[in-house]
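Form 7-S
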Amino acid sequence: DIRDRAQGGIGGSIGGQAGSTGTGGAGGSAMSTAIASNAGASNVFTSANATGGTGGAARGAGEVGGTGGDATADASGSGLGSINVDSTATGGTGGTGNTGADHGLGGNAYATAQGTGANGNVTSTATAGRSTDYLVNDMRSSANAQVDGSGTSQATAQYNGMPLSVVDAVGVGASALLHGAPDGDSTLAVLYTNTADPSMPDSTPVHANFDVTGTLNNHTFVDSAQLDSDVFAVGVLGGTYPSDGVGNTRTLSTDIDFDVTPGALQASEQNLLVGFINPVLTGNAAADPDFQVTLTIQREGATIESQTFDETQLTQLMDFFNGRTHDYGALNLAGLSGSELDIRVDLDVRSSSPGVGFVVDTIIGNSTLTERATPYVTNTVIDTGESHVGDVVLANLNVVNTAAAGSDGANAQFAGTTGSVVTSGGPITGLAPQASDNTTLQVGVDTSASGVRGGTATVALSTDGTQSGNAEAFANAEVQVSGTVYELAGPQVNNAPIAFGNVHVGDSVTAQALSITNTALDNGFGENLNASFGSVDGTLIANGMFEGLAAQATDATSMTVAIDTSSAGNKSGTANIDFVSDPDGMNSLGQTSLGSQGVSVTGAVYRLAEATIDNPLAFDFGNVHVGDSLSQAVSITNSAVADAFSEGLDASFGAASDARILNNAGTVSVLGAGATDNSSLVVSIDTGASGSINGTQTIDFASNGAGTSGLGITALPSQDLSVMASITATAFNLADPVVNNAQPVAFGNFREGDLVTSQAVSISNDAPDDGFSEALNASVGGTSGGVTSNGGSFTLLGPQATNDTAITVAIDTSVAGDKSGDLTLDFVSDGTGSSGLGQTPLASQDVAVTGAVYRLADIGVTPNPVVLNARVGDTAEQVLTVSNTAAADGYSEQLAVTGRSDSGDVTSSGMIGGLVDAGASDMGINVSLDTTTSGAKSGSVTFSAESDGSNTSGFTTNVALPDEVVAVTGNVWQAATADVGGPIDFGIVHVGDAVSAAISVANTATGDLVDSVRGGLTAVGGAPFSGSGDLGSGVAAGATDSSSLVVGLDTGAAGIFTGTATVDLASHNPDLADLDLGETVVDLSAQVNNYANPVFEFIGGNAALSGSGTSYVLDFGSVVTGSLVDWMAELAVVNDVTGPADLVDGMFDLAGIDDFMDSGFVDFVALGAGDAVTGLMLQLDTTLHGPGVFTDTILLGGRTYNAGGYDEALTPITLLVRGEIVGPGGEVPVPAVLWLVLAGLPVLRFVTVRRRRQR
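Output:
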């Protein structure tokens, strides 16, 4: 048995002069610790008791009593038997305030107990020090855990200190943690979140019902304009079965208790609200047959809430506690039995399974349930990580509205930023309760510059008032955003483009180095640069690469380019450099391709001119006559490739080896590549004397870059011409060609593709056959028009000889038209075997040829295909145009239509008016479709025809042409038949009824293809009728629309009404224009009744009638015994409505009449509007009764109905009849309404019922 007790000292007092301020000394803290253990089975009892010292007293205005001392008690015990551990902590009382001084705040209390044993209890009790005149007083918490192997408990009762939450209680045996009248931060810790435990929600809908301001988890909560609250306390209750328990059923009991001082409320008196937040259910409670949670809430000792949940009700358990606020009605502080309001909450957890438990946060206060939204940003710390300058790096904010279903929507929008934070998106409007939005609002950092970036983004959160009626700010979330931005390497080529100029093929060219700078800032966040050659044009030579070029550094040696001079051409091109930004360990972003940059390289390689003498053998003049004039131009070609990259050729005469070899001193300048000069340089010989010449003429050449490479003149090797001649004195005749055929050569008319027989051309050499005439050569030089030939030729036709086989002529029949033209013959006089003077060209001659080719006629019919749509009985026809589509150029035959045939549902008629010229047409044929029945129709018309040449080509035999088939299709529709329902009688309805009726429309037409009925209501006449609607896509055949055309009835006033509704309809199909079906007028009728209203009406007598509806009082007042024998009154029952209206059947229940006499109360039927049943008499006979108060009751029942079938039971109407008889000398009050006019009426015992009808 171990016991420990600790007591704190009393704080010092303070009492100053008037106007001074100060605080009494704080009470001394007390800490008690007791530990007991027993290795045997004996019982163990341990007790720790700590009491804080009382705060020092204060005296005088402006002074404050000292704070009570805190108390901490910790007790533990262990053994093999029963263990009982008790830990009690009591905070010191706040210092007393005297003569105007304020009282001090009581001290906090903290108690913990733990034990290990077979059974027993561990109990912790914490009582905060008394805080007179403060909002919350007499705070006490208690936690008791039954030992089963081990047990723990903890209890706190505190006014200040660290906030409490379920995180502090999960896994503990029993916990009762109480924080009275907490400040905003302590309250927000419960209302907002438990950030230490990921299983806790980010927020709670309970916040909507308590106006708590302050800052927590980067949210600053705004003071509500629609809600003002007093938070009395926040607490944690619950327990967990020990993990080392052996399976015995144990109960973990917890409670918190405190008083509320009415005069200390800051807000107006409202309702007692208890919110439950963050329930945590641990272990496998569903498998624990002993699991049970019991909640009890007491107000002033009376139970106002009692709930019990077992292992089968876990869903209900969580639903009751998870973010729920329970309203327990008005505080009603005025009705307290004492000076303070006592509130107590008990939560017991029973279990027999290790680790099974339940704990929950709670908040208790004076407030009002609201429908405010509770918006929060769940991710208020954003790290965008590493990025590059210019990247768009945005993170989504998750905005949730945790308010309960039926609450306001939430709004969220950005309201500003600091630092280098950027935002995107928004606003969010009307975010539904229990919903979240994680896409609309985005934050990031400004990546326009490198470095460490960050700041905050303010998100304004509000409730939209759609349910509460009050839109207002809820909180501002300060989202902390950070990120690191790196600058990619910046490649810059400093010496582009690279120019090599013009060179000759084979020249040696020096490579040029590229100068490349990394332009990234050298601030510790600029990445290195790697470079290598990518694709390079084939005309260039590229070498080298580099890696790791630092920010602001330059490489001017590693990479070179040159041009290829092995061949001529434009060597300009692009050397693409692949750049990579390499962080080289600076960050984790890895290498980033920067793409390629093309470096332009220019240069051209030119080839030298190449000199070729084309006619080196042309300077053997052979045998010539003395005195002949002989010369020959030198044909010189620049045989270099003609591609703009070859230089020009210069040429001039050099020396001749024989003085008789002469030249014209000509020159050739800049002869382009591929060009030939055959006139500038001319060689001749002197034939003044006979003899032989055998010598050379030298020609000098040079390559000239003018106009091409610009590289100047480069000498080329010279070349020698061999010049020879034998000069004699003999003369010969040239050949003399003659064409013998009569011209023109006429072929006549043909059809396209006909085979034509060629005709031979006869040619003679008409030179004299005297031994001194040359032979004739002949060949086809060409043709014109439609003339063709065999391309024949002959050679060495002797003088006076003829050739009539070698060359033939014909015409082309592949295409129609005029084929007239010429055959051109080329002639040469040939000295072979005669003069030996070679070949001498003679004048060409033309042979005239005529002929014509005609094409066949071509039939075409349009339109084809033909589509004809119609309704049954309509005429559906189409004129066909039959055309001769052959070209109208004078060389086409006429079209003869020889017949036609019909098939299917198609019929043709008419005739063609004779032959049809080319390019012309005939419209004499009609085609029609069968419309006798509905359906999809099809068929064809087939035309047969021939080509007739009798009036054109002259051919008398016609040629059959392919048939022309015209396909005809179409839809034949049966017109719709509309059957419109009516008339419409709404019957009898009541004022205020919602009444409508539909006009039915049926389509009764039949067939394979049937139109639909379209249209709608176009007019409704006669108040109070209205109507609207249309048939939309229409009513198909055999169908009925009974819902689209709706007529409404305004039942705002009673009456009998008639009217009309006009329906305008049309027959519709997708192929044809709508067919008007006309208008149908539907008669409308209705009767709107007022509901019957039976009431009692006072006719006269010695009483007053009051009341209405279903309750009336007939009061006879008071009368002295014997002063008036009979007091009487007459009533009526009136159906107090205007017509038309329902009828009333009435039945009186007189079982409640025993003191008064009645007459005339007989049942009635069919009481109409304004009708009355009169003569209902009641009488109090004072001679039959002694003094006293007399009351009787009459019930009027029955039914109300009308001819339309409405029949409802009448709600019973109660008539209470009362009167008082007083003894002699008694004071008689006057009735509320006294009709003395009946004082002299004779006594009525029986009165006949009278029925009065109002007109």
